Task: structure prediction
Amino acid sequence: MNNTLIVTGCAGFIGGTFTFKALSMGYKVIGVDSFINSNPSTVNKIAQKFPEKFIFIEEDLAKSTNQLKQSINGIDFDAVIHFAGLKAVGESEHEPLKYWENNLISSTNLLSLMNAHKVKKFIFSSSATVYGDSTVQPILESNNIQSTSAYGSTKIAIEQLLKDCARAGLVDVISLRYFNPVGAHQEMIIHEDPYDMPNNLMPRIIRVALNLDKKLHIFGDDYDTRDGTGERDYIHIDDLVEGHFKAIEYVKNLKGFEAFNLGTGQSVTVKEIITCFEEVNGIPISHEYADRRSGDVAKCFADPSKASDLLGWSTRKSLEDMCLDSWRAVKKI
Result:
C-alpha cells in the first residue's frame, strides 16, 4: 500500500471533509469533481493547505474519464472512495433522468477505469434512502431494500452493480449507508454551504440564523412521530469520516461486498434539532410548517451494531456538538 487514494466528489461537504482529513493523515489524494453540485472554493482551500499531496481533476465522470485516466497513468493507488453523485430527494422526483444519468453512469465508468488499472478496493457512499419507508426501526443492513425516490433508486442500482462486479471478482466493495451528516471538522475549513439553495435541514437552519431567510419551512407536521415532524439519525461529519478510514482498513482483507450503516442509532425530530440549535447557539430560529416533500419518510434511524462489531467504529459526537460546530464553521467565514 502506498497511501494514494482516488476521491470522487472531493469538492462536496462529505467528500471535501474526507479529503482534508486523509491529506492530514499523510495520504496522497487524486480528487475529481465536476462542480455540478459543489463549489470550487473547497478544492482551492484543500490545494492551498496540501499543495504537494493533492492533485485535482475537473471532470464529469458520467461523460468521460479521459482526464482521470491520463492523470493516474503510471500511478499506483490503493482504493477509490466514490462520493460523487446528485443527492436531493425532492429534485430527483422531478428530474429522474438527470439523477440516473449522473449517478449510475459515473459509477459504471469509474468501475471500468478501475478494472483497466487492476485496482479492486472500492468504498461507496450509499445512503439510508435505500431502505425506503421502513416499518422496522432502527434499521439493520438486512432490512428490505426499497425506494421511495429516484435518488434512492439510483443508490440501490449502484449497490446492485457493485454486488455483481464483486461476485465476478472485479472489485472488493464496502458500501457505507449514511444517515444524516451534519457539523464541521475540527479545523472548520470545509462545511455545508448555506449560501446556495440547500436541501438539507442544518444549512437551512443556518440560513435563518444568518438572516438570509426569514423562516425555516418544516415539511410536514402530521407524521406518526414523537411531535409530528420527521425523525432522522443525525451524525457528526467527524464520526462519519472516521467510518471511512475504518472501512479502508477493513476492505484491504475483504473479498466481495459488505454494507454498513453509519449512524448514531438515535432518532431526532426536526423540531428537536431546531430546539437544540437554538439552545446551544442562543439564536432563535423562526419556523413554519409546509406540505410534506415527495419522497420523504416519517422515520429513519440506524442500528449501527454491524459497523461497531466488524469495523470497530462508533460515534463520539453529540447532537449539541453537531449544532455548535455547524454554526461555528459558518461564523468563521
Notes: The first strand starts at residue 4 and ends at 8. The chain has a mean pLDDT of 95. Residues 61 and 110 are 7 Å apart (CA to CA). The two ends are 37 Å apart (CA to CA).
